Amino acid sequence: MTEMMERPAESGTAGVKKVGFISLGCPKALVDSERILTQLRFEGYEVAPSYEDAHAVIVNTCGFITPAVEESLTAIGEALDATSKVIVTGCLGERPEKILERHPKVAAITGSEAVDDVMMHVRELLPIETDAFTGLLPVAAPGMRADAEQPVSLTDPNARHGDVLAPSVKLTPRHYAYVKIAEGCNHTCAFCIIPKLRGRQVSRDAGSVLYESFRLIAGGTKELMIISQDTSAYGVDIRYRESEFQGEQIRAHLTDLAVKLGEMGAWVRMHYVYPYPHVEKLVELMGQGKILPYLDVPLQHASPRILKLMRRPGAGRQLDTIRRWRELCPELVIRSTFIVGFPGETEEEFQELLTFLEEARLDRVGAFAYSDVEEADARALPGHVPEEIKQERLARFMEVAQRISTEKLAEKIGRVMDVIIDEFNDDEGDLPGTRLIGRTKGDAPGIDGQVYLYAGDFAGQVKIGDIVRARIEDSDEYDLFGEVLERPEWKPNVPQLGHFGKH
Ligand code: SF4
Predict the structure, then answer these.
(1) d(C-alpha 266, C-alpha 213), whole Å
(2) Which of 115, 137, 139, 316 ranks highest by number of CB atoms within 10 Å?
């Protein structure tokens, strides 16, 4: 196997160098993967569809929690079974000793956000001979600096950390994209090692984010997921400095950014927003229909003592904040994640969390049983909760969350809602696009529920990425069911490149 993988690229591949790529972890890591893939293509490498076709493999790892570390180490092992030319990057790459302990034969290791270093190793392992003739030709489909007129390399020495370039290779479907507005984090949550792995927060300029978003929407993207470690803190590190977007100076502030993004006419979805006071302004924009009425707010707990032990940012008076948000935007869908069984959590404190859940009636909820992360400060806290109690609390928590989700979704029956179509769910013999799977404005891809639709009169007409109007006819714990009523024209305020059908 190894021999087959390590055959020189020249043998039967006419000099084409193929690189396999494995992308693990969160959407933030996905954006890093897109940047590396963009640069690979820019430099003339091909992306191999399988290990068997690859002359080298890049593994973009996750190091957030112990199971993610394990998954990353397993993926590295699988890549090494195929080739010795394995480059490891990403969060776990910040801890090379952990990788080398298990896999001493990896060819190279880099940390996260390290497009330059990864590319340097790729060039060393798989040099591409420059052809005297083709080397003079312009590169097709290059990476574009978000605000540049000319294609430039992603490894532009003038690009500062965080002000990274817009990837032109996307790992998501064309109709949605993740846009990373900052990297790193200034907090010190006791259970998290992200700041140790990724460093302090570095925000991108608003102009850079806006040009990237503009380009994505012009290329057919209809939904932007705004991500970072702490989206509410966007711009703090660069003192909200202004930058140019279409002749205007825009502050690197979340509200200003949201206003401008909203004007482009695509769906704009906010993730990892902590409940700081200025988030109210964002919710006002949601109430005015400028950005999606959706907030992904990782609350993690409701007991003040546990939140303090966790050292969570923006904690306190959570119920009041949520009530206020709902006044400002009654349509608001709130997604959150929680940790149960944090060290020291008593039964009373867990009950406090359940009561909060009942009162807050959050729309979408995810929960994890606390697990130790090497190097995280929470490991040293007293009163670790036995595993069976953690699991029992997680089951009780999920039971309540599921009941609330069922009740909230049932309230949507009879309503007409916008649904973005992600995939077809056709049975054999159906016209393509008869049964559809999509999401409402209240559902983010991959983490929230889905809407199963029957296309009815629109069978065969609806395309992936269309935004349709649908009547909701049924619901269960997590998903909705209904029928397409209308297929309105998609009209963003950004000129569209090329022809994308009706939408
Ligand atoms: S806010 Fe807390 S949990 Fe989130 S990345 Fe920063 S330290 Fe980690």
Answers:
(1) 9
(2) 115
Taking the CB of residue 348, how many other CB atoms lie within 10 A of it? 9
Residues 51-92 pLDDT 10s: 888 899 999 998 877 778 888 999 999 999 888 899 999 988
**Chain center to CA of 355:** 30
Residue 232 Cβ < 6 Å to ligand 1: no
> pTM to 2 decimals?
0.79
| Neighbour count for residue 408 (Cβ, 10 Å) | 16
Q: How far apart are CA 310 and CA 300, in angstroms?
A: 9
pLDDT digits (tens, 9 = 90+) for 22-61: 888 888 888 888 888 888 887 888 888 888 888 999 999 9
Question: Which atom of ligand 1 has the smallest separation from the CA of 195?
Answer: 7
* Residue identifier of the C-alpha nearest atom 2 of ligand 1: 189
Buried b (16+ CB within 10 A) or exposed e, 3-40: eebeeebeeeeeeebbbbbbbbbbbbbbbbbbbbbbbb
Three-state secondary structure call for residue 290: coil
Domains present along the chain, CATH in parentheses: 2-130 (3.40.50.12160), 176-410 (3.80.30.20), 416-486 (2.40.50.140)
SS3 content of the chain, % helix, strand, coil (to 5): 35, 20, 45
Instruction: Report how far residue 339's alpha carbon sits from residue 192's, in angstroms, rounded to the nearest whole number.
Output: 12
Three-state DSSP at 56 gives: strand
